[in-house]
Design goal:
13 strands; Aminopeptidase; alpha+beta; 2 domains; 297 residues; BioF2-like acetyltransferase domain-containing protein; 10 helices; Acyl_CoA_acyltransferase; disordered C terminus; 29% strand
Length: 297
């Protein structure tokens, strides 16, 4: 039986254990992550936390709707057993009618051919090979970019979130990231650093000036490329290529998967593929606005 629990009714230990042990586990679904990035969230639970489906939601005026929070690529149904399409459909059908619109980016373990949905592409790279083997799969242009970084004596070391935020606001205004989402990203960064759930790395030129950097999430299975920035000089010095290569070298020959977190943008996708990354498909499910369903507040 599927149950609907509000946030304050969730058995957090059981919930997080379900996420951790899921065959399709990801860091976005943990309670601490959703507490930071989601305005509100509740959950659907199968029996005694055999499977779960977190439901991040917002309220606009008196209308509640389910949405994908910023900094959260994939949610959906999580279970330690294989997830059938029938189970996914049961969960989706059980979403309370009080949510008048539904937008969910399901995870890569949630196939939903029975629903009208949009395919999304992610790129991942298993790191269970030596660095030499990984490097052999790089495209030639990527190897050349990395060599530019080496010749210019780029250095990788820790940096501050505030430094990355400054670069982002100066160089990425077209992304229109809101102040509230920057604030959530800052809180997320503080949490992952204190709890060994991720890290920040900066790329510095030989004058020790920060020219790029990124925020990485890290759980038991994946290292995720959550957020990255680069200055104009950093682009010329190939800071992003140098940074990713440095990280892949560090975690080569491990059980980690490097998650590039996208992308549907051709140029970005080509950049990720140039490291030997492979496609991972997930789906965006949307149910249009329904005002006149029975209200449940």
């Amino acid at each position: 039986m599927i149950h609907y629990y509000k946030r304050n009714e969730i058995a957090i230990a059981k919930y997080n254990t379900c996420i951790k042990n899921s065959i399709n586990s990801n860091i976005y679904a943990y309670s601490w992550y959703l507490d930071i990035v989601a305005d509100n969230w509740d959950v659907l639970v199968l029996n005694d936390y055999e499977a779960v489906m977190p439901l991040p939601w917002k309220r606009k005026y008196f209308i509640k709707y389910i949405y994908p929070p910023a900094w959260t690529q994939q949610l959906g149904v999580f279970s330690k057993r294989e997830i059938s399409e029938g189970l996914i459909q049961r969960f989706i059908n059980f979403i309370p009618n009080k949510f008048k619109k539904i937008t969910i980016q399901l995870n890569s373990g949630n196939g939903i051919s029975f629903l009208k949905s949009k395919k999304r592409i992610n790129y991942i790279l298993p790191l269970n090979n030596t660095y030499k083997d990984l490097l052999n799969k790089y495209k030639n242009n990527r190897k050349q970019s990395i060599n530019i970084g080496k010749k210019n004596k780029l250095i990788i070391k820790n940096c501050l979130f505030s430094e990355l935020e400054i670069i982002a606001k100066e160089n990425y205004s077209h992304l229109k990231i809101s102040d509230i989402n920057y604030k959530k990203l800052k809180l997320l960064t503080e949490y992952i650093q204190k709890n060994d759930k991720g890290f920040l790395l900066g790329v510095y030129n030989k004058q020790d000036k920060l020219v790029g950097g990124a925020i990485f999430l890290k759980d038991d299975k994946r290292i995720s490329y959550l957020f990255s920035v680069v200055t104009l000089e950093g682009k010329q010095l190939q800071a992003n290529s140098f940074l990713i290569d440095t990280l892949l070298k560090k975690y080569a020959n491990s059980n980690y998967i490097f998650d590039f977190e996208g992308s549907m943008i051709l140029g970005v996708a080509n950049f990720f593929r140039s490291f030997g990354a492979v496609k991972e498909t997930y789906f965006l499910y949307e149910r249009p606005f329904r005002l006149f369903k029975s209200l449940q507040f």
